[in-house]
Write a structure and sequence with these properties.
The chain is an alpha/beta fold and about 425 residues long. It contains 13 helices and 16 strands. The protein binds 4'-deoxy-4'-aminopyridoxal-5'-phosphate (PMP).
Length: about 425
């Protein structure tokens, strides 16, 4: 049983000593003190089904025995070194990661967070191409460092500070609320991609360093671009001298079900891939993988990162890669993703409040509206159902520009019964609203 400070004591300490700018979920926050696979427990011993996985970070399960063992074994052997010495663990991890990549994407820089990974990708793109301008999507989330803060385009995360220079935001290829959402997917992908071309031709010197996108926007509310969008954009960007960056922080490692990487669902191969969160199942681990040519652009000077490629994080990352394959977690994402999506589409027939169900695999979103025709966001109802689900023992995420999108991105080890429980819970809550 839990014998630490009470939730009220922790709350008081946190209010006094931690950042006042933190976001806390739920009117009466919960305190999580233990985790096992898809479940977490609070200090009273109450169990919750965790369908948000510490914001899409617990990929293979809380405290997965194999990942935990890898960390403990490595902690007992060698806790830390840096890249000024050789170390087998990080080298092997780099090789194993390359084996999961398509094309000539085989050189990895290890860092500690998604923001750092995207910062490094921006630097590489600029050094490699000799251009400055970087294009990102509106509604994107790429991090909160000085550089990535410029890429991020969600008002909730924007501080009134000097914006990062050389960043442009193109139209978000939003198929629900965007200006071309009512077009056929093919026509919409052309029109959204046209905006990229138009922006490059009229708002830059004509050459760009990079285009970066999450294949499915995470924080922005699980927005899936129409098929063919990235193909068209990549062509345009490359024809203007730029490289294409896929932010796979949330969509990678099998989560999308049909493919190991999110970008594969759009049939493209990027030039640079950034990863974090699920790569380490909770370890402070992130990575940038690229081609040998682009990777060489940093050779002009020394690139260094104290904890980048830390042996403990690398050992955990290696274990994650193994577990995804051994436990066939990509297939599970496909199967349970379909079950959940079909189930939610069925609920949509019954509950007018469900405006759209979207996503791939276990990267799902449910947008709630007061009026289907007008698509009026329903943030209060979203908040209410969010609380009701928590009271039933189900944790999910919330996002989107209007705070009216449920984000369902559980650890990939959930079961059929867990999916049934969520569908039952949603049905019950919407019926009681
Ligand atoms: N990219 C994406 C798609 C993300 O969702 C996040 C985090 N929410 C980041 C980058 C930044 O990662 P970190 O918080 O590790 O810096």
């Amino acid at each position: 049983p839990y014998d630490g400070p009470t939730i009220d004591e922790v709350s008081k300490i946190r209010t006094e000593y931690l950042s006042p700018a933190l976001l806390t979920y739920y009117k009466k926050p919960i305190m999580v003190v233990e985790g096992k696979m898809q479940y977490v427990w609070d200090e009273t011993g109450r169990r919750y089904l965790d369908l948000f996985g510490g914001i899409v970070t617990i990929s293979v399960g809380h405290c997965h025995p194999k990942v935990t063992k890898a960390a403990i074994d490595q902690l007992n052997k060698l806790n830390h070194t840096t890249t000024i010495y050789l170390n087998p663990v990080v080298a092997q991890f780099g090789k194993e990661l390359a084996e999961k990549m398509p094309g000539n994407l085989k050189v990895t820089y290890f860092v500690n967070s998604g923001s750092e990974a995207n910062d490094l990708a921006m630097l590489m793109a600029r050094l490699h191409t000799g251009h400055m301008d970087i294009l990102a999507l509106r509604n994107a989330y790429h991090g909160m460092s000085q550089g990535t803060h410029g890429l991020t385009a969600l008002h909730t995360w924007k501080y009134p500070q000097m914006p990062a220079i050389g960043i442009h935001h193109v139209l978000n290829p939003d198929m629900y609320r965007g200006p071309f959402a009512d077009e056929t997917p093919e026509r919409a992908s052309e029109r959204y991609a046209w905006d990229v071309k138009n922006l490059i031709e009229h708002s830059t010197s004509g050459g760009v360093a990079a285009f970066i996108a999450e294949t499915i926007q995470g924080v922005g509310g699980t927005n899936v671009p129409p098929p063919g969008y990235l193909k068209k954009v990549y062509e345009t960007v490359r024809s203007h001298g730029g490289v294409c960056i896929a932010d796979e922080v949330q969509t990678g490692f099998g989560r999308c079900g049909t493919h190991y990487w999110g970008f594969e669902t759009q049939g493209v191969i990027p030039d640079i891939i950034t990863m974090a969160k699920g790569i380490g199942n909770g370890a402070p681990l992130a990575a940038v993988t690229t081609t040998p040519e682009i990777a060489a652009s940093l050779k002009k000077r020394i690139h260094f990162n104290t904890y980048g490629g830390n042996p403990v994080s690398a050992a955990m990352g290696r274990a994650v890669l193994q577990v995804i394959d051994e436990e066939k977690l990509q297939e599970r994402c496909l199967h349970l993703g379909k079950k959940l999506k079909d189930g939610m589409i069925k609920l949509q027939e019954k509950h007018q409040i469900i405006g759209q169900v979207r996503g791939e695999g276990l990267m799902l979103g449910l947008e709630l509206v007061k009026d289907r025709a007008a698509k009026t966001p329903a943030p209060q109802e979203t908040a209410q159902v969010f609380e009701m689900l928590k009271d039933m023992g189900i944790l999910i995420g919330k996002g989107g520009l209007y705070g009216n999108v449920f984000r369902i991105k559980p650890p990939m080890c959930i079961s059929d019964e867990d999916a049934d429980f969520l569908l039952y819970g949603l049905d019950k809550c919407f019926s009681e609203l």
